């Protein structure tokens, strides 16, 4: 059995402002570093052997905080797990999108990366990591939209309609029959 813990990165200034981040390489804000430290404390009571991150700074910084607490090296940066491309809406808030494109902007071609393309690259990246570390416990720090899209590909019966919280963890198990989800969007560590 291979266990994968999928983590959404900590908070950034753009998260706080409600801006679409996409491929923009934003750092964690002060709250994001605090969230990563709280999650790292939770994970230190569990058994994790490897940690990977998207190649975007906010995911890497989250992974580095966790790796430091767990005493495990950052095993690699994975471009296939970077956030979905935000196209023309990247860097904007909802209000700015309405002002720029009109209230029907969601019906327009905003040059967004498609769910299908994102799902395919995310599933491929996770399966490659799982193949590299069979029967291991592996953490992966990535981004909300790409994780939800990837989860829909790995566990089609899973309801991914709820947005992932910053530093939430979703745990998948790979056995001979495929993937199953043990925990979805767990962020109880942030309640204390």
Automatic annotation (TrEMBL):
Pfam families: His_Phos_1. It comes from Paenibacillus tritici. CDD domains: HP_PGM_like (cd07067). This is Histidine phosphatase family protein. InterPro entries: His_Pase_superF_clade-1, His_PPase_superfam, PGM_Phosphatase.
């Amino acid at each position: 059995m291979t266990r994968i813990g999928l983590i959404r990165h900590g908070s950034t200034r753009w998260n706080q402002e409600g801006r679409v981040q996409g491929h923009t390489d934003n750092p964690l804000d002060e709250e994001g570093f605090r969230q990563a430290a709280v999650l790292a404390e939770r994970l230190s009571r569990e058994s994790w052997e490897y940690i990977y991150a998207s190649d975007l700074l906010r995911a890497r910084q989250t992974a580095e905080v966790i790796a430091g607490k767990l005493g495990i090296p950052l095993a690699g940066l994975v471009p296939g797990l970077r956030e979905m491309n935000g196209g023309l809406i990247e860097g904007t808030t909802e209000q700015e999108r309405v002002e720029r494109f009109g209230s029907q902007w969601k019906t327009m071609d905003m040059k967004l990366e498609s769910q299908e393309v994102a799902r395919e690259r995310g599933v491929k990246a996770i399966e490659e990591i799982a193949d590299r570390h069979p029967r291991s416990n592996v953490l992966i720090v990535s981004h909300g939209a790409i994780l939800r899209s990837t989860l829909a590909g790995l566990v089609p019966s899973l309801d991914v309609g709820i947005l992932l919280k910053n530093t939430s963890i979703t745990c998948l198990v790979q056995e001979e029959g495929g993937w199953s989800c043990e925990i979805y969007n767990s962020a109880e560590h942030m309640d204390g």
